[in-house]
Amino acid sequence: MRLTFIGKDPGSNPAGSPTLYRTDRDSWVVQGWVVTDSDALAQMDIPKGETCVEIPDRMMRFFGQGDRGVDIG
């Protein structure tokens, strides 16, 4: 899988997460905060081999930017 960096959370301190990447497989990879809230996890059906992360609303501006990021692959 080849990743293209799209953007980091502009409000992150220190600047390292969340981060959004576009793949060469027509998908997205999201780096974010691990969801550990048991009530929230109980509301989801997360199959083995998958996980979920939380990102803030301010990251939504990066979606739709496609390959306009910086290639890190």
Q: Would you mind describing this structure in some detail?
A:
The chain has one helix spanning 38-42, and strands at 3-8, 19-23, 28-31, 33-34, 53-54, 70-71. A 4-stranded antiparallel beta sheet has the order 3-2-1-6, with no helix packed on it. It has 1 helix and 6 strands. Helix content is 7%, strand content 29%. The longest helix has 5 residues, at 38-42. It has one domain (3-61). It starts with a strand and ends with a strand. It is globular. It is mainly beta.
Number of strands: 6
Task: Give the strand order of the largest sheet, numbering strands 1, 2, ... along the chain.
Answer: 3-2-1-6
Structural class: mainly beta
- Rounded average pLDDT: 84
Poorly predicted parts: none
Order of SSEs: EEEEHEE
Shape descriptor: globular
Give the C-alpha Rg. 13 Å
Largest sheet: 4 strands, antiparallel
Roughly what fraction of the amino acids lie in strands? 25-35%
Chain-wise SSE layout:
Elements: E1 3-8, E2 19-23, E3 28-31, E4 33-34, H1 38-42, E5 53-54, E6 70-71
Structure at a glance:
The protein is mainly β and 73 residues long. The chain has one helix spanning 38-42, and strands at residues 3-8, 19-23, 28-31, 33-34, 53-54, 70-71.
